[in-house]
Amino acid sequence: MTYCVGLLLNDGMVLLSDTRTNAGLDNIATYRKMFVFEDPGERVIAVLTAGSLSVTQTTIARLREAIDEPDADAGSSIMLAPTMLKVAEIIGNTLASVRQDIDEKMTAAKVSTSASMIVAGQRAGGAMRMFLIYPEGNFIEATDDTPFLQIGEHKYGKPILDRVVKPGTSLSEAQKAVLLSMDSTLRSNLSVGMPLDLAVIEKDACRVTTRRRIEAGDPQFKAMSEAWSVALRESFTQISI
Amino acid sequence: MTYCVGLLLNDGMVLLSDTRTNAGLDNIATYRKMFVFEDPGERVIAVLTAGSLSVTQTTIARLREAIDEPDADAGSSIMLAPTMLKVAEIIGNTLASVRQDIDEKMTAAKVSTSASMIVAGQRAGGAMRMFLIYPEGNFIEATDDTPFLQIGEHKYGKPILDRVVKPGTSLSEAQKAVLLSMDSTLRSNLSVGMPLDLAVIEKDACRVTTRRRIEAGDPQFKAMSEAWSVALRESFTQISI
């Protein structure tokens, strides 16, 4: 499994993904699940992926190919698409078509492949937008009411987001929120694992303004995680029933 | 869905269940999911249920019938079974057989029924034991390493349990832990709902020593839930990234 989360806030977008993939419990590997397509200052698109690795890798590869095609146009390349909505459509269609191709190969094995994605981006002159793309290629969009999207093992890390994330949350608080949301997930579910990829896209920068890989044992993450544990336990002790 | 949780601690056992059942989103009802079989001072057995209501109700009804049979014996009645392990076996077998009966009826509709249970109990002279019974009738037991068992929508409420519950946790702290675990679940998942049923079985009492139904709007639960939200938000603010 996987855990990826994206926040769409007034000041920008914050994205976090883990890197664990597994085929069964005895075949674990590390793969990046965050992909950035960037024309700095003009357009930035970040894609987070969950689900079948063969589906998500092929989808990303096809998106890259479509960008590099000599006759790439606004209908095929996410770097030329006129709006973020169109970007989400291209990615959704690519994902659905890859999935269909792979599903056909898998029919004999009676295995079904599935994958979902979070797409976050902004083009110069447009608004920041964030979408959750379903395995079938359709999608929903983050709004003020629900300023975060999650894919993969989303349940363990949802309570903290439900409590603290609002559109007005600062980018620094937001990074804390996604890291603590990930921390809860890492503690409770083996199929989500370090290292982590964190990205911040400040509003109107149209580029990734902060990008950080957090390795296992990262002292800053570890200190935060421990401080949170202590704070939780202390709060717990102080609450009266 | 459902959320039920049971803690097996040195001082006793603490059990909490919600009461929401739904057939689709537009057919929601309240049903008790905690059932107590008691011969005070001699034997106490509490059963928490999750899954198909027709399966769990029929299972509980058959367990009651088996107790009331004039020729009930140690192999059929959970109130006569010589050990808690045997109790878990009887409940597991009853659950599996009910499920099979109902599944046969459902084949035409291509609907599968599933249910699981937590069984907690003690008989005079024996140890407290707690089991999680799977839909197939097999079961696992809570131990010192893992002193809690959950059924239903267990993920939202797991991080708090992972952090604070140890075998040495006091019964009062334990009640707080299960209530806060439930609170996180209620906030994040519509299919789990008030009122709640809370039971405490103190060690060697062989009866339910505290039993409480917590209705929606219960001032004590509400105050605890709000205090926890405030404490979480304050802790969150104080953590440095």
From TrEMBL, chains A, B:
Leader sequence segment: none
Biological processes per GO annotation: proteolysis involved in protein catabolic process
One Pfam family named in its UniProt record: Proteasome
Domain of life assignment: Bacteria
GO cellular component, one term: proteasome core complex
UniProt-listed InterPro entries: Ntn_hydrolases_N, Proteasome_sua/b, UCP009120_prtse
Protein's name in the database: T1 family peptidase
UniProt source species: Frigidibacter mobilis
